[in-house]
Amino acid sequence: MDVTMNWMGKMSFEGMGESGVVQKIDADTSVGGENGAPRPMELLAMGLAGCTGMDVISILQKKQQPVVGFQVNLRAERAEEHPKVFTQAVIEYLVIGRGVNEAALLRSIELSAERYCPAQAMLGKAFPMRLIYKILDEESKVVLREGEYVQKSK
To answer: Is the whole model's pTM more than 0.90, yes or no?
Structure first.
């Protein structure tokens, strides 16, 4: 994979990868940025959440699950000292539908975690991740089922 980052002044950069889509990054004003775009570590977290999210929703669709809403929330803790790496994360999958099968969701999370998501496979070697899920009713938004997937490989 090839990526090019061009400095745009202060702490702002514009980058482009093989997709051809331009992505900006910036820093907080306290460190010389203009707060005009995501920070690099935010993009790493978004990449991880997006990668596993794409896997899980794709697998749920193939399993013909009645999903009408889907969200992935990621909370990553960071070290206090530089380089302030991620030290642990919780990935929460929120699935909204009527009659979504819990076993199908668990299998989808498992396949993403253990087989398909390269971001999760790579970053999982650097810090532990806890994978939790909630299935919510389409109309009432009441949590019908919740639990945790415990990764097999480590």
So the answer is: yes
